[in-house]
């Protein structure tokens, strides 16, 4: 049988040619034993999407999106990004051998992501504005120059990201979890996972949907507001701010889809503070050995908040998608942690430093 990967599910994907692939997907589903016990939960899991080739779930969308660019005869690709989309597009553009342009919000992109976009050969433009402005600009650029736009407005990106849900169900031996929890920025990922499982249901592979639960940062929560206030549409947040720069997005492009996904599945949305995000990033690393970037920890921080407030039932089977690797944002880690202990190169000073 086929190994766990994006292309295991190729019959449910639109690509009709040899895919541009770097062995994406097939990521681990970890049981959160300690954090689960602390919350009184026996069935709390984390799907570690940081274990993809470029270190985030974006690779699932890009393997399909870049393959479609070639299938459609496009000669170059572009995106705006808070960092991971651009890192992934640079990687898959390099693999495809086509020119890649990425627009980043100046000063608001984690170091590892900039390093990836640069090293993999994208033309990296730093925009003096936030992500939402960069997205407007890259749409105009692609429109005027016939470049293939690969932000999550592009439906093929979401097709690849559907496979997160497919793999989770395979890893749970065919069971659909009661709830899937994802950090939400542009809301493409949560919408893609919902679409994928809805397709499995329509095909008769499963008979229930997970409650789709979106978590945002307290300083950047337009989707949470729309859900909590029962709004017909998401009202953009003009000045999104959070340490979780990956989800520092005020105007989610998949706003309509995420409202359908959450409401259609009886799910919910909640926000967590930057402190709660950073505290959970630390817990995941130190209690579970799982290293993720801040935005990814928001999903587990959200479960903690919703369990403690009684919204999530402790005996639910819950899968959190942790979306990006810890190495993406080393600066935030260094700022959070006590520095290494200075020590002379003698055993005596080492024992003193270790207080042994
Ligand atoms: C680590 C991490 N976690 C969560 C999200 C939110 O996913 P969506 O709700 O589908 O947007 C992102 C998104 C990043 C970008 O949007 C980009 O890279 O431009 C991310 O990098």
Describe the model.
With 356 residues, the chain is α/β, with parallel strands linked by helices. The protein contains 14 helices and 10 strands. The strands form 2 sheets. Strands 1-2-10-7-8-9 form a 6-stranded mixed sheet, sandwiched between helices. A 4-stranded parallel sheet has the order 5-4-3-6. Helix 7 (163-171) crosses helix 8 and helix 11 crosses helix 12. The structure holds the ligand Cc1ncc(COP(=O)(O)O)c(/C=C/C(=O)C(=O)O)c1O. Ligand AN7 binds next to helix 3, helix 8 and helix 12.
Layout of secondary structure:
Elements: E1 29-31, H1 33-39, E2 44-48, H2 58-71, E3 77-80, H3 84-96, E4 100-105, H4 111-119, E5 123-127, H5 131-145, E6 148-149, H6 155-161, H7 163-171, E7 179-183, H8 188-202, E8 211-217, H9 222-228, H10 255-264, E9 268-272, H11 274-287, H12 294-308, E10 318-322, H13 330-336, H14 347-354
Parallel strand pairs: 2-10, 3-4, 3-6, 4-5, 7-8, 7-10, 8-9
Antiparallel strand pairs: 1-2
Bound molecules: ligand AN7.
Ligand AN7 binds at residues 56, 81-85, 152, 183-189, 246-247, 293, 295-296, 323-324.
Task: Determine the strand fraction and express it as a percent band.
Answer: 5-15%
What order do the helices and strands follow?
EHEHEHEHEHEHHEHEHHEHHEHH
| Number of extended strands | 10
Read across the widest sheet, the strand sequence of neighbours is 1-2-10-7-8-9
Describe the biggest sheet? 6 strands, mixed
Unreliable spans are none
Helix content: 40-55%
């Amino acid at each position: 049988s086929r190994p766990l990967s994006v292309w295991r599910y190729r019959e449910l994907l639109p690509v009709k040619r040899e895919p541009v692939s770097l062995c994406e997907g097939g990521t681990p589903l970890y049981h959160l034993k300690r954090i689960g016990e602390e919350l009184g939960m026996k069935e709390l899991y984390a799907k570690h999407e940081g274990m993809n080739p470029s270190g985030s779930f974006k690779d699932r969308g890009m393997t399909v999106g870049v393959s479609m660019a070639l299938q459609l005869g496009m000669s170059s690709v572009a995106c705006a990004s808070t960092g991971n989309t651009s890192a992934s597009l640079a990687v898959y553009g390099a693999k495809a051998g086509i020119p890649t342009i990425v627009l980043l919000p100046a000063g608001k992109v984690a170091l590892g992501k900039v390093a990836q976009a640069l090293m993999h050969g994208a033309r990296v433009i730093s925009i003096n504005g936030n992500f939402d402005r960069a997205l407007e600009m890259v749409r105009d650029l692609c429109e005027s120059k016939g470049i293939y736009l690969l932000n999550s407005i592009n439906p093929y990106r979401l097709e690849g990201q559907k496979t997160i849900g497919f793999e989770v169900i395979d890893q749970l031996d065919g069971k659909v979890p009661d709830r899937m929890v994802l950090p939400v920025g542009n809301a493409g990922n949560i919408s893609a996972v919902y679409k994928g499982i809805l397709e499995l249901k329509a095909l008769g592979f499963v008979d229930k949907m997970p409650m789709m639960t979106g978590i945002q940062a307290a300083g950047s929560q337009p989707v949470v507001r729309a859900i909590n206030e029962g709004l017909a549409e998401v009202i953009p947040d003009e000045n999104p701010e959070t340490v979780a720069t990956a989800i520092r997005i005020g105007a989610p492009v998949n706003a309509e889809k995420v409202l359908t996904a959450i409401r259609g599945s009886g799910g919910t949305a909640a926000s967590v503070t930057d402190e709660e995000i950073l505290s959970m990033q630390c817990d995941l690393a130190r209690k579970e050995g799982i290293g993720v970037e801040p935005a990814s920890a928001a999903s587990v921080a959200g479960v903690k908040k919703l369990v403690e407030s009684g919204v999530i039932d402790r005996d639910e089977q819950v899968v959190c998608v942790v979306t990006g690797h810890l190495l993406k944002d080393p600066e935030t880690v260094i700022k959070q942690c006590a520095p290494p202990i200075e020590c002379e190169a003698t055993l005596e000073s080492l024992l003193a430093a270790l207080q042994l």
